[in-house]
Write a structure and sequence with these properties.
Length: 394
């Protein structure tokens, strides 16, 4: 049986209408997270797998938070995993078309989730449809999933699936990097939130000398850490330097009261080789310096979120196969990059599954009003997935 790229492209073109119809149906199911209600879109995935005689299973940590995993192939190793997510962010305002109707216009399909991530899911299902037709040629297993809760931390999705050991794969291709199939991300900075509390002494606003202003102490700490690079000047070849952002500041109870408490959350993106505890220690030293300069002030610091960084070898077989498939389908070699953001690659790598991110669509349209994806790009994406799966498994 021929598995050349032109044949695969013709097969995916035959499924252009299927891809469009699947995406429209998925968009029409409101899975805004919170609360999620992923079971609504999950039913479409289940029906699709059942109609193609594709074996599948569902797992839910909570009622309505469905995760669907389909399997094509021998059932054995090697296994490649393509997880898409069923949830979306809320539609929001500013739309020129109804956000939950899946409107087709000018070769695009509009709707919340078209790019992030239901377009990729529709394309993945089309790839499954083709791979099922050549299943006897697969020497391993292709796993395709619609998972829950990606938009709010994955606690009911891949965090749950990996912690419960419900996913086992030799490679994962995560189609949640919407750059028009032009990049593959193999590294991500760590995501660390440190909540800092500054403690002072309350007093009347007319007699500030009788109090200790916690808000001013917090401002002092923020100024001292402006431009701070955890770990000094070190850089990663793909991720460059770490970064620090003060994302939340709170303090005071009234305009005429010296605040005794101020809080801030420092969002830090850090590099492979660094640790959350090491960064916390650096920040604690800055806090101690403020305490020394401001008698009566004290600070407490705690880590509220830590997703460690990941980095895999760009020459890994799974990355090379994906890059080769993108090149064969699009005619251009994808750039190998690292990102400061977070995908479910983190959860997969932490579970021992090598993972790289890529994807169809325009990144700038994700989470925006009039979110849309070109139908032709879904077809090309499906061809990439099918081409890569065949190279990995056949």
């Amino acid at each position: 049986m021929r598995f050349d790229t032109q044949t695969i492209m013709r097969e995916m073109e035959k499924r252009r209408g299927l891809a469009a119809e699947l995406l429209k149906r998925l968009i029409r199911e409101d899975t805004a997270n919170p609360p999620g209600n992923e079971h609504r879109a999950g039913r479409i995935v289940e029906e699709f797998f059942a109609s193609r005689d594709i074996s599948y299973e569902t797992h839910s940590k909570e009622s309505g938070r469905t995760n669907v995993i389909g399997r094509v192939g021998s059932g054995g190793a090697p296994r490649v995993f393509v997880p898409c997510h069923l949830d979306t962010v809320p539609p929001g305002d500013g739309w020129t078309v109804p956000p939950l109707e899946g409107i087709e216009r000018g070769g695009y399909i509009y709707g919340r989730g078209a790019v992030d991530n239901k377009g990729a899911l529709a394309g993945t299902l089309c790839a499954c449809d083709y791979l099922k037709s050549v299943e006897s040629s697969l020497k391993g297993t292709f796993l395709a999933a619609g998972v829950a809760d990606e938009e709010c931390g994955s606690g009911a999705g891949l965090e749950f699936l990996t912690a419960s050991k419900l996913v086992n794969a030799d490679m994962a291709w995560v189609p949640d990097m919407s750059n028009g199939l032009s990049v593959i991300s193999v590294a991500e900075k760590g995501l660390l939130d440190i909540e800092v509390a500054a403690h002072g002494k309350q007093a009347h606003g007319s007699r500030p000398e009788l109090g200790v202003n916690a808000a001013l102490a917090m401002a002092d700490l923020m100024m001292r850490t402006e431009g701070w690079l955890p770990g000094g000047a070190q850089e990663h070849p793909l991720l460059k330097k770490p970064s620090v952002c003060v994302g939340m500041v709170q303090g005071g109870i009234a305009s005429n009261v010296v605040p005794a408490l101020a809080r801030a959350v420092f969002n830090i993106r850090y590099l492979p080789g660094q640790t959350a505890d090491g960064i916390l220690a650096e920040m604690s030293r800055a806090a101690r310096a403020v305490e020394a300069a401001r008698p009566g002030v004290s600070f407490s610091l705690k880590i509220t979120q830590d997703l460690p960084p990941i980095s895999m070898d760009p020459s890994h077989r799974g990355v090379e196969i994906l890059a080769g498939a993108i090149s064969a389908v699009t005619g251009r070699r994808p750039a190998i990059i690292g990102v400061g953001g977070t995908t479910v690659c983190k959860q997969l790598v932490r579970a021992g599954i090598p993972a790289a991110a890529f994807g169809p669509g325009e990144e700038a349209l994700a989470h925006m009003a009039d979110e849309r994806i070109e139908i032709g790009e879904m077809v090309r994406y499906a061809a990439v997935v099918a081409r890569a799966a065949l190279d990995f498994l056949a």
